[in-house]
Write a structure and sequence with these properties.
The complex is a heterodimer of chains A (113) and B (113). Chain A has strands at residues 4-6, 10-13, 19-25, 31-38, 42-51, 54-57, 64-70, 73-78, 87-94, 102-104, 108-112. With 113 residues, chain A is mainly beta. The relative contact order of chain A is 0.33. By secondary structure, chain B is mainly beta. Chain B has no helices and 12 strands. Classes of the chains: A mainly beta (113), B mainly beta (113). Chain A binds chain B through residues 31, 33, 35, 40-45, 48, 50, 56, 58, 88, 90, 92, 94, 96, 99-102, 104-107, and chain B through 4, 6, 9, 33, 35, 37, 42-45, 47, 50, 52, 91, 93, 95, 97-106.
Chain lengths: 113, 113
């Protein structure tokens, strides 16, 4: 089974802190994604990566950056956390060939105080 | 640009009854895939069912089936013989198979004993 693991289920950070959310997948997937989930807004794409060191902005990239130095790991970085970044963050991965099913991590609930 | 719309924020169903969750989408791609994902309280997103747009036959997975109306751009999910374990958020999603998955805002399904 594909496993996508996010480093934390819950995080509490202070305003202005630099925050790292880590995601690791074990199926050699080329594609990796970071989504933000908010009630009534569904899942919104922050960034995605289709290869090592490759990244593209999603729909809401402002205030975020990403890093993909190894194929299995995709990090989301909040450069200076703000209270409006309090949310659920979901990481996903997929293989571009065949049926493009996305596999998800268990989510990180981030609270910025 | 792709869009996915779920117009039912919340639905309820009696245990053992049938419920249908609605989803409409819009895409300019000729080749695309549609999905229903389930997110239980544990937050782990799980694939329920998928449909390739080029297939006319509606997908079925045990108690879950879809009604795919390509011309109307409609993709509804029918859950038969509803069980308490079906209670969750359900998200409809669309991808053209390249990189981006677009999700709807979700429908919360309550199953009444």
């Amino acid at each position: 089974d594909v496993k996508v693991t996010q480093s934390s289920r819950y995080l509490v950070k202070r305003t202005g802190e630099k925050v790292f959310l880590e995601c690791v997948q074990d199926m050699d997937h080329e594609n990796m994604f970071w989504y933000r989930q908010d009630p009534g807004l569904g899942l919104r794409l922050i960034y995605f990566s289709y290869d090592v060191k490759m990244k593209e902005k999603g729909d809401i990239p402002e205030g975020y950056s990403v890093s993909r130095e190894k194929k299995e790991r995709f990090s989301l970085i909040l450069e200076s956390a703000s209270t409006n970044q309090t949310s659920m963050y979901l990481c996903a991965s997929s293989y571009p060939g065949g049926l493009p099913e996305a596999f998800f991590g268990q989510g990180t609930r981030l609270t910025v105080v | 640009a792709q869009t996915v719309t779920q117009s039912q924020p919340e639905m309820s169903v009696q245990e053992a009854e049938t419920v249908t969750l609605s989803c409409t989408y819009d895409t300019s791609e000729s080749d695309y895939y549609l999905f229903w994902y389930k997110q239980p309280p544990s937050r782990q997103m799980i694939l329920v069912i998928r449909q390739e747009a080029y297939k006319q036959q509606n997908a079925t997975e045990n108690r879950f089936s879809v009604n795919f109306q390509k011309a109307a751009k409609s993709f509804s999910l029918k859950i038969s013989d509803s069980q308490l374990g079906d209670a969750a958020m359900y998200f409809c999603a669309c991808t053209s198979g390249t990189y981006k998955y677009i999700f709807g805002t979700g429908t919360r399904l309550k199953v009444l004993a």
